[in-house]
Amino acid sequence: ATIALPLPPAAAARALRRAARFVGRALPLCRAHTVEFFTRGLWERLVAARPDAVLEALRAAGPLARPLAAGAGAAAAPAFCENSEKLINVHLFALAAKYHSLSSLGVCTPLEDVLEALKGNRKEVKKILKKFMNNKKSHEVQVMSELVDSIANYCGIKQVIDIGSGKGYLSSFLSMQYNLKVYGIDSSSSNTNGAHERNRKLKKHWRAYQSRGRESLKSQTLEKANNRPVESKIKCKTISEELLNNANSLQNQDQVILQDLVPSCGFTEMATPATNTETEADLVTGTQSHETKLSEEVLAILNVLSADAVEDFSSFHNNSGELCEEEKVQRKMTSLKTKARKSSESNLYFPLTSCITAETELNDIITDLEDCMMVGLHTCGDLAANTLRIFTAKPEIKAVCSVGCCYHLLSEQFENQEECHDQVWGFPMCQYLKDKGWCCGRNARIANFKSLLDRHVGKTFSKSSSFIDYVRRSLKKLELDDSKVNSCIMDYYEKYKHRMNELEAFNMLKVVLAPCIEVLILLDRLCYLKEQENIAWSGLVKLFDPVKSPRCYAVIALKNQSCS
């Protein structure tokens, strides 16, 4: 089978060129820094419209609130003056920004379509996550882990490498919920040490949660089974031989060492086999969201042990106390499931401390590296780009699912021409933007456009009771002269107070532009993957609810099956 709805490379390239053209016109506004707003007269230099007109246009239930009409945003009338580069039409500017969003460009593959193509089955949400994670992280881990498991199953792999694993939430969940062997790699030793301890605690609660779930399900199933009539007879020998043959085949194929069978005193100690076997079959079906999925061979045998096939075994009771063939099979099945459960509860998560670069040799970090996939949940700056580079270069890595963040930490090849040109840069990655010498600039990449002062003084403002208190705290922290009297400080505040609407309007314009910068970065990564010959499928997927997790887009790719 093949993944559905691939975006053709040409379509991705067209979308990238459109986004680059729009962002290119808006770069003077993107690159302007709020801290220089008054000192460099940024409003007069960059915006021709009045501040109140800008605020009214952006606040109104207008261009940003209404659905985008066909062709809107691509109008011939310019939003910026060709000569002065000033913004002259706020309405067209807002429409163009919306037109160049990922949803309007039509470059994203719906998550539901990807899961359907991967034939992933949605699983019950784990309430236990909320005890260890906030709502945002719980949402991210649940959604991403389901997709990762579906990709792993599709590719037939059981090993996952979590790059920039941090506190290990995603890694722990992938190992416990989906029985995947996960290596969580983070550059911070405090993160990996903390992840070890956190995983130990989570594992303890996880087992207790599973146990309660199994007991609850078993009691419900037994109650249901007790109300069901039991057939009177069965051809024991035929069923016994079939079950034993299947069990022996499974034992040879999966190399499972069964426990020694110990004779019991008879069937009086056991529940009615019809009820018992039906319960086991129901438990296998009902607890897939709690335990690792059994192999297809185990499921095939357990399906034979259904209530329709097995009746009351008391008529076959052996007076000598020896086990009949059916009971032996039942014990074998119980042993198999016990071992499978213990396997699923074993520690399959290994936090490792290492700094990952584009040149990193994973074999030096992971000694038992095998066919695997790489994942990254909000990998910072260049780490997201390096994850994609490692994926394309290493034959063992069959798939990647990366959600990046911290775009302001990206290194740019064309930002500082004096820096070393042999370095591996975070942006751009694709050939088109490299050929154009494209550079966003750090100010354009900052998600929240804070002032230079705010970056230096940190959280001083939140602790300040007034503007005077804020200035004095800031001057002290920056080791500057704080001898100015309060009246001088307030005179400065009053001098610019009447221009607050300019500053507010200016920041709103930059907020409207911010998603377009993200579009450019994500399309750059997607087009890079489209350029690789060993990639079978690649796409952008809106993975999370943007209200809960603003950095919600995942870059996903799968290699050709023949790649080795």
What would you say this structure looks like, in words?
By secondary structure, the chain is of the alpha/beta class. The protein has two domains: 9-110 and 359-559, no CATH class; 210-345, no CATH class. Helix content is 50%, strand content 9%. It contains 23 helices and seven strands. Strands 3-2-1-4-5-7-6 form a seven-stranded mixed beta sheet, with helices on both faces. The chain is globular. The model is unreliable at 121-126, 230-244, 246-281, 287-320 and 447-456 (pLDDT under 50).
Keywords:
564 residues, alpha/beta, 2 domains, seven-stranded mixed sheet, 9% strand, globular, SAM-dependent_MTases_sf
What would you say about this model in short?
The protein has 564 residues and is an alpha/beta fold. It has helices at residues 9-31, 42-46, 51-59, 90-99, 102-105, 111-118, 129-132, 135-155, 169-178, 189-226, 236-254, 273-286, 296-304, 325-345, 362-365, 382-393, 431-435, 442-445, 452-457, 460-463, 467-477, 486-497, 500-530; strands at residues 159-163, 181-186, 349-353, 372-380, 397-405, 535-542, 553-559. It folds into two domains: 9-110 and 359-559, no CATH class; 210-345, no CATH class.
